[in-house]
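input
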Amino acid sequence: MKKFTLLMLSFLTMMMISNAQTLNNPKDADGYYIVKWDCAQGAFAASNDIEADETFTFAVDVTGTPWVNWLKETPTAAGATRALAINKWTNYGDVSGGTNRLKQIDENIFAATWNIIQMASTMNVEAATGIDSIVYIYGQVFGFEFTADNPGANWWMWPAEIPEATAIDPGTGAIFRTLAYTGTKTSPEIWSDDYEGGLFLSNNTPEKGYTVPCPQSTGIPGVIESDARIIGHEYYTIMGQLLEREPRQGLYIHRILREDGTSEVLKMFKVREY
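output
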């Protein structure tokens, strides 16, 4: 009887995992998805080395999942574009539902800048920021559609292959977890409308602790357009870090240098080539 019970539990566990959403994100040594995006490198970071009140860019890669075809299908709403969002919660409670939308940064990668504590709604912030506290983040990727003037033309959409409200589970239960809290990595307060495009991303309502992925800093020299001869080019991450060469993929800033000392700055997006 005991053996039968163990077999049944194993079977049920396998069924739960097989019914879970999966991502193409890399995993850490403990099996959690690595969701931190390295904006300087245009790739996933080596680990989720973040604390609960530290700002970072969160990203999901849906390559190889049913979302790839869903994103390519004709949108239901006229003139709309399809994108992904994530409904999320933590072991200490919920965060704001206005922070769900993700923005495309590569062919199948969608992202947003988060600060988990700043996004808190019913979350027990005091407990989550106690020394050595670890925050576990759970959630469901879902689809939505937007138009030029409507950030939510359609909402809570799912491909036929994924049952509605299916949670993401890499086999650990939670999508990812933070570092044990020390209080030494607290980030300044941010709001969605602090950066271009952030207010639209948050459904035209300012949201704390949430904005566009890899928000552009003020570290890039000023922009002055001119017709003078071009004498050089500079490339920056959208966080303002100077790069040695032009990136081969993702979002970046291209600064055109001109002979008269002026410059022109362009925000570029390049899809990865296969």
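quick obs: Residues 2-18 form the longest helix (17 residues).
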